[in-house]
Design brief:
Helix content: 40-55%
Strand order of the largest sheet: 3-2-1-4-5
Low-confidence stretches: 30-35
Strand content: 15-25%
Shape: globular
Radius of gyration: 19 Å
Mean pLDDT: 85
Largest sheet: 5 strands, parallel
């Protein structure tokens, strides 16, 4: 019992520290890309997503979408008459999952032309209609105010240079009193991410595409 109390105390301290870091991150420019640039990010994720197999591209995203909506009590009424935006759609996995979920139309927007080309190709392979893909910046969305009934942004804004600006853009394009989904990674921790950070430093001079294929 004493050990359990120690674990709870450690967890609580970590939550407090994490909250402070998160607040600071929202209120200033994102430091995630200090040694990076947009071209590297879009190339990295573009090449990563286009290699996804049938299951990881078409099946898994729909399963995750349903699980996350259920866990967070997200119920979208009259979904068949609503238009959704996948903000920072990557290769379009969740865009197509949202369409399968029942939305009348879904638009995916991403900064990477590689991702958009992948998304268009994948949607054509399955003859999925009423899905559009647009090249655009999540910090300056190429859409009108109050345009979408639902905005989905999954694991995107922490890769941008300003979480707060991205959030403002999401709110701007959403219709009044509509719903959305926003998922952020604050400061990844644990053995997995610590290892990733160490490997990034050790392998900084290795061609990323080569490393990805080897590992």
């Amino acid at each position: 019992y004493k050990n359990l109390l120690k674990d709870e105390l450690l967890l609580f301290r970590n939550i407090i520290t994490s909250a402070d870091l998160y607040i600071n991150k929202i209120n200033k420019q994102n430091t995630f890309l200090e040694n990076d640039d947009k071209s590297f990010t879009q190339k990295h994720y573009g090449n990563l997503f286009k290699e996804f197999n049938e299951y990881h591209y078409y099946v898994e995203p729909f399963e995750l979408l349903n699980t996350r909506f259920e866990r967070n009590n997200i119920i979208i009424d009259d979904v068949e008459n609503k238009v959704a935006l996948d903000c920072g759609c990557g290769g379009g996995r969740y865009t197509l999952a949202l369409k399968k979920y029942g939305f009348k139309k879904v638009v995916g927007v991403d900064y990477s032309e590689i991702n958009i080309n992948t998304a268009i190709q994948r949607s054509k392979e399955k003859n999925i209609e009423n899905v559009d893909f647009v090249v655009g910046d999540v910090l300056s969305l190429p859409f009108d105010d109050n345009e979408f009934d639902f905005v989905f942004c999954n694991g995107v804004l922490h890769h941008s240079r300003s979480i707060s600006k991205g959030f403002s853009e999401i709110v701007r394009v959403m219709k009044k009193n509509s719903d959305g989904w926003l998922y952020l990674i604050n400061k990844p921790g644990g053995i997995h991410w610590d290892t990733v950070e160490i490997l990034r430093k050790l392998m900084k001079d290795v061609n990323p595409e080569y490393a990805r294929r080897v590992l």
